[in-house]
Design a protein that fits this description.
Elements lengths: L1 H70 L2 H6 L14 E3 L5 E5 L6 E3 L13 E3 L4 E4 L13 E3 L4 E2 L15 E3 L21 E3 L6 E2 L13 E3 L4 E4 L13 E3 L4 E2 L15 E3 L6 E2 L3 H4 L6 E3 L4 E5 H4 L8 E3 L4 E5 L12 E3 L4 E4 L13 E3 L4 E2 L15 E3 L6 E2 L13 E3 L4 E4 L12 E3 L4 E4 L10 E3 L4 E2 L15 E3 L6 E3 L12 E3 L4 E5 L4 H5 L10 E3 L20 H38 L1 H6 L3 E2 L9 H7 L8 E4 L3 E8 L4 E8 L4 H4 L2 H13 L8 E7 L2 E7 L6 H6 L1 H6 L2 H21 L14 E3 L5 E3 L4 H6 L2 H5 L10 H4 L6 H17 L6 H10 L5 H4 L2 H4 L9 H15 L12 H10 L13 H4 L7
Parallel strand pairs: 2-4, 3-5, 4-6, 5-7, 6-8, 8-9, 9-11, 10-12, 11-13, 12-14, 13-15, 15-17, 16-18, 17-19, 18-20, 19-21, 20-22, 21-23, 22-24, 23-25, 25-27, 26-28, 27-29, 28-30, 29-31, 30-32, 31-33, 33-35, 34-36, 36-37
Antiparallel strand pairs: 1-2, 38-42, 39-40, 40-41, 41-43, 42-43, 44-45
Helix pairs in contact: 13-17, 13-21, 13-22, 17-21
Bound molecules: 2-acetamido-2-deoxy-beta-D-glucopyranose (NAG) (5 copies).
Length: about 950
């Protein structure tokens, strides 16, 4: 019974519960469904038309982009990982207007590889900007691009695009900027481009374009910049330029243009930069250029321009740079140059100029470079030139200049190169001790007399040959510790070669022939290995050199050092050693004590205030690092860098492996302004470049500074090159890639970020490789962080063997030091070992135009012999790397190419070596500069 009664009761209970539950659900869901109902009922009518159209548009746009994405090479597709789904307005590189139409497509420097064939341009009718520059796109530019009628900027520069420029581009009537430079486009420029009525900037440089410029360009009335350099254009300029009244920049360099310089090139009187290096222009400078007071830079060297130079140019108040070398100008230099108050560089060498150098030149007070060599100038050097305080490079060689060298030259503290060779100069050589930056001095082939001065700058090249110098060689010459090449031949010098010459450790070339010298030669490498001719026709030189008799034993090796002196020297030496030992012991014990202290107090350290700029979602903490490295135990040490010790830390909590660099503590000074310090590092953590080791963040407190970097498993370039086994795997393609990577990183840091960063210590130790042999430069910006800490700074001076000799002595820090180090690293990569003095030797052999040994060495002989010689395409690239490392060495550093130019050459241009690799000599590679 009970069970009979119970059952219905239970059922009732269950249904009651179900009811309650349902009620609850209704109460909860009612408002939701209500709002749902209400919103949908209000917006429905609008959504239907607008929304559907929008969705359709977005779908069309996204489909077009995704289709293109899938047509790209696999690695490029992964670079566009945000390109998924159907809302392209949020994708990387895309911007839309209010109606979700794509208006900007900017994927510059993504390294994308593929063609434009599959990009459906008609899907983006409102596009204003299309920037795909600095990628690896190849194939033709599609005709369909001409459909983008709103387009205002088209930038496809620095890719590998081929074929002709499509005629349809003439339809882009709103186009203001068109950049197609640094590709391999061919054919002629379509005349349709003359229809681009809005065009303001046009750059077609560095392609294979041929034929003449179309006459229709005369209609480009808004054109401000026209850059056509490095193509194969020929013929005369076919229009008068009457309508190009806004032209500011005209660059025609390195083509085969003929005929006259256009008569109205400066008709609008706004022309600032006009360059036409290495063409076949003939005839005089046109009147409009003569009156063109807006000019800032003019480079017309390497043409056949003629006319009286004295009447061809006016006064240009803004002019900074004028280069007219290798033309046929004649006549006397006008005094107008002195009135160009902003002129810093004037080069008119290798023309047919005569007459005197006017004292008016002394009024061009900003003049840095004056090169009027290889002309027919006579008269004396005006004293006034000695007052040009900024003068860096003065070249008057190969003229008929007579008289004395003005003694004021000795006050030119910025002078780096002085070449007065092959003239009729006479009298005394002035003391040049105040010219501290002077590294190249050539006074050969004159009639200079009396003695060699006691003081020179920090010379690397000294050529006083073919003069009437007499007396003994001064002892002080031995102080020239950087001297690499010394030529005193064909004079009347007598006496002994000073013993101080032993100190000239850099000396490599020496020529003392045709003098009246006697006695022993210094026993250094330069003297031992010099050829016979270097010492012939003297009175009685002896020593270890080839072809010389050994010195008789009675003559002491050091005629100027007596025995007493020797004993004093030995005592001093011993004293020095003892002091050194004390210092080393002291320093080590202090360091050890410090280390112990630090180890004992990790907790205390942690509790003191330290601040972090983790860009790593805040997970990393000082403790994690201490834990992971077991309080910086040696077994986690993976390297000792220029600034500190590097540990590998596997941060278990965060699941990351990082490299931690433990630096020396910073001084109170730099920590006095923690805000500036944090923002400095903050900026460094923002840097994102494929070839720069990522700095994740830092941790700092008074006792230590930690920098936390991305960890790279490949190790350093130095380590790979030093292991025969790894070096063999490191093939030519990989090596060229590494050089490209390093160049790209340096270019980025020097030129592409808002505040340029100089590395200061580029070496093969600082180039790390990942598992795919991609280069990553480490320690960027470290110099900058430490910059404020001067005591730390002075102890560091770059890595030996990677520092430019001409910069090693100046404390001035600029990107030139990085450029030099890059050249060393590039050579090291292809040679498989450090190039030693090769760079300085080559630069000097060029400067003194001697056919010395390294000049004639074949490139293939210095390449890393552990690999088979490169062939085909990569052979060309290896030659290009060598060329970039060795070219343009004779020029003063500020005229050598920047890292940006170097990187562009490496990444964007297909280089074809004029000679097969087997025939290229190092001398061939050391070509003159030819960059604009
Ligand atoms: C320049 O434009 C005018 C009309 O705007 C046209 O008649 C002329 O043919 C054009 N000149 C050239 C050389 O294309
Ligand atoms: C200059 O422009 C005018 C009108 O814009 C045009 O008629 C003329 O043909 C142009 N001159 C040259 C030389 O192209
Ligand atoms: C150039 O200047 C000279 C003298 O100042 C003047 O006589 C001449 O008309 C000017 N020429 C032009 C084309 O402006
Ligand atoms: C000369 O050069 C200085 C510095 O570059 C500049 O500020 C000045 O405006 C220039 N003067 C003229 C007349 O162009
Ligand atoms: C030294 O100068 C003389 C004369 O100028 C020249 O013939 C010789 O080749 C030079 N020596 C070297 C090593 O350059």
């Amino acid at each position: 019974m009970a069970s009979l009664l119970k059952k219905p009761l239970r059922n009732e209970l269950i249904s009651y519960r179900v009811f309650l539950l349902l009620l609850l659900l209704v109460i909860i869901l009612a408002p939701v469904s209500l709002t749902l109902a209400s919103t949908s009922s209000i917006t429905f009518p609008f959504d239907d038309t607008n929304g559907k159209a929008k969705v359709a548009k977005e779908r069309k746009q996204s489909e077009a982009l995704l289709k293109w994405k899938t047509s790209l090479h696999i690695k490029s597709q992964s670079l566009l990982s945000s390109w998924i789904g159907s809302t392209p307005c949020n994708w990387v590189g895309i911007s839309c207007d209010n109606s979700e139409s794509i208006v900007h497509l900017n994927l510059s420097t993504y390294g994308l590889k593929g063609t434009l064939h599959n990009l459906s341009f008609r899907s983006f009718p409102n596009l204003l900007t299309l920037d795909l520059s600095y990628n690896l796109l190849y194939g033709p530019i599609p005709q369909e691009l001409g459909i983008l009628s709103s387009l205002s900027e088209l930038d496809l520069s620095s890719n590998n695009l081929t074929h002709a420029i499509p005629t349809s581009l003439g339809n882009l009537s709103n186009l203001r900027n068109l950049y197609l430079c640094e590709n391999q486009l061919s054919g002629s420029i379509p005349q349709e481009l003359g229809m681009l009525g809005s065009l303001s900037n046009l750059d077609l440089s560095s392609n294979n374009l041929t034929h003449s410029i179309p006459a229709s360009f005369g209609n480009l009335t808004k054109l401000a910049t026209l850059i056509l350099h490095k193509n194969k254009f020929s013929g005369p300029i076919p229009f008068k330029m009457n309508n190009l009244t806004r032209l500011k920049i005209l660059d025609l360099c390195y083509n085969q243009f003929t005929g006259h310089v256009p008569e109205n090139v400066c008709i609008g009187r706004v022309l600032e930069k006009f360059t036409a290096i290495d063409n076949h222009f003939i005839g005089p400078i046109p009147q409009s250029l003569r009156n063109c007071t807006s000019l800032v830079r003019v480079r017309l060297q390497g043409n056949q321009l003629s006319g009286n130079i004295g009447e061809s140019f006016g006064v240009y108040p803004h002019l900074v740079y004028m280069e007219l070398s290798y033309n046929n100008f004649y006549g006397v230099l006008s005094t107008n140059w002195g009135k160009c108050q902003n002129l810093t560089s004037l080069r008119i060498s290798n023309n047919d100029i005569s007459g005197k150098i006017s004292p008016e030149f002394g009024k061009a007070i900003l003049l840095h470079v004056l090169d009027i060599s290889s002309n027919r100038l006579d008269g004396e050097i005006p004293e006034e030139l000695g007052r040009l305080a900024f003068l860096v490079d003065l070249n008057l060689h190969n003229n008929k200049i007579s008289g004395n060298i003005p003694s004021d030259f000795g006050m030119l503290s910025n002078l780096e190169q002085l070449n007065l060779a092959e003239n009729n100069l006479s009298g005394l050589i002035p003391e040049l001790g105040h010219c501290r930056k002077l590294w190249y001095l050539n006074l050969s082939n004159n009639q200079l007399s009396e003695h060699i001065p006691f003081q020179f700058g920090n010379l690397q090249v000294l050529d006083l040959s073919q003069n009437f110098l007499m007396e003994e060689i001064p002892q002080q010459l031995g102080d020239l510790q950087a001297l690499v090449s010394l030529n005193l031949s064909h004079n009347s010098l007598f006496g002994f070669v000073p013993s101080t010459f032993d100190r000239m450790l850099s000396l490599t070339y020496v020529d003392l022939s045709y003098n009246r010298l006697e006695g022993p030669l210094p026993n250094t490498k330069a003297f031992r290995e010099a050829p016979n001719e270097a010492f012939r026709n003297n009175k009685g030189l002896c020593g270890n050199a080839t072809g010389l008799e050994a010195c008789p034993i009675t003559i002491s090796n050091y005629p100027h050092v007596n025995r007493g002196n020797k004993i004093v020297k030995i005592i001093l030496l011993l004293l020095g050693i003892i002091i050194l030992i004390f210092v080393i012991v002291g320093v080590t014990s202090i360091l050890c004590r410090r280390k112990k202290k630090a180890r004992n107090k990790p907790k205390e350290a942690h509790h003191q205030n330290f601040f972090t700029v983790w860009s790593y979602d805040g997970k990393m903490l000082y403790e994690n690092i201490i834990e992971a490295t077991e309080n910086f135990d040696e077994k986690h040490c993976i390297g000792v860098g220029g600034y500190g010790i590097v540990y590998k830390a596997e941060l278990l909590a965060a699941g990351h492996v990082v490299a931690v660099k433990k630096m020396h503590p910073l001084s109170n000074e730099s920590m006095a302004n923690p805000k500036a310090f944090t923002s400095e590092i903050g900026a460094l953590t923002e840097i994102r470049h494929r070839d720069i080791v990522k700095l994740h963040g830092f941790c700092s407190h008074p006792r230590c500074l930690l920098l936390v970097y991305e960890f790279l498993e490949g190790g350093s370039l130095e380590r790979i090159l030093s292991s025969d086994e790894q070096a063999k795997d490191f093939d030519w393609v990989k090596r060229v890639n590494v050089v490209k990577g390093v160049a790209s990183a340096l270019s980025y840091m020097h030129h592409d970020i808002s505040y340029p960063i100089i590395h200061r210590d580029i070496s093969s130790k600082n180039v790390l490789l990942d598992s795919e042999y991609e280069a990553h430069i480490s320690d960027f910006g470290t110099a900058r962080i430490l910059n404020s800490d001067s005591s730390y700074w002075t102890s560091f001076a770059g890595t030996f063997g990677y520092t430019a000799p001409e910069l090693a002595y100046t404390l001035e820090v600029n990107e030139k030091s990085d450029i030099y180090s890059f050249r060393v690293v590039a050579l090291e990569v292809i040679m498989g070992r450090h190039p030693g003095d090769l760079i300085s030797l080559l630069s000097l052999s060029f400067a003194s135009s001697s056919t010395s040994v390294p000049h004639n060495v074949l490139l293939k002989e210095v390449l890393d012999q552990r690999l088979a010689h490169p062939t085909n395409k990569v052979a060309n690239e290896v030659v290009l790397v060598a060329k970039l490392a060795l070219s343009c060495l004779h020029a003063s550093p500020q005229y050598r190419p920047t890292m940006q130019q170097v990187s562009q050459k490496l990444t964007t241009r297909k280089y074809t070596s004029p000679n097969p690799l087997d025939m290229v000599t190092l001398g061939d590679l050391n070509a003159p500069c030819n960059s604009t």
